[in-house]
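Tutorial, part two.
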Amino acid sequence: MSANEAQFDNILLALAEKHQGGVPDFLHTLASFLRRKTDFYTGAKQAEWEKMLLEIFRKESKLAMAAHEEKVKAREASQRLKDEKERAEREARQKEMDDNKICDITDEEAAAIIKEQEDKKRQQLLDGAGDATKVTATNEEVSKPIEKAEDDTEKDEVGKLKPNAGNGCTLDKYMWTQTLQELELKIPFNVTFALRARDIVVSIGKKSLKVGLKGQEPIIDGELCGEVKQDESVWVLQDSKTVLITLEKINKMNWWSRLVTTDPEISTRKINPEPSKLSDLDGETRSMVEKMMYDQRQKEMGLPTSEDQKKQDILEKFKQQHPEMDFSKCKFN
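Running the prediction step on this input gives:
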């Protein structure tokens, strides 16, 4: 581009900016100027001035396309050089790492490498923990079945497990204890490394429970014996190797005979809640709980409940007051 070409750029730019319609509007102004102020259209044949316009615009078009192609080629060449430089740097850095040489890397890259190595090591540990739970759940003896009945009322209890000291059950892989209000579950993992919360899978549903290590078969995965309050049931990781879970019961009037439906059943008749636990309750609640426990035992033995006895006492008193009446055909339901 010559200096003469550029001498009118400022004037033309200022003129072009005043045309809101863009290039078409600007060209229309130039064409109108030639029509009004010159004999451009009438001084020569139409074919001649049209040819002149086409030659001028085609020439400028070729110059513009050539300049554009040069810019594109320059940009692509610059990008290729940048990519080749980055690739060479990566290859050099990798070679130094492979050769166990000191490598100048950024803090972010170093953190990413350390995390990747740590995750691989932890996953290897988890993969090797397939037998991590094949141990006794606690130092307590595993709950054993009842071998013989003490009397005829306990015939149905034979074969059921005896409750542990916490009125629950101790199995090979875990143990649980219970009160009427809640249930506590303890699952130890026999691993050689410290577990983290992210290594554990715990899912508590209203009537379901799933617990285990990530990537392994779950230790517990089944339907609970009763419904629990999900929002008030929690779990924690103790001493980096043991999971403790507290389940809040919805029905606080019944003892659970098992944790999940696939577990062996314990004998709820053998449950003996600590007196101290009952003494913690207020008078009305304590009376209700004691009545419930008494009625449950009476039903299991086929004997009348407290309500049945109350009705029987009323009937006996009425019989005494009316000896003249015949009650031989009266049945008590």
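The mean pLDDT is 81. In part three we will examine how such features are distributed along the chain.
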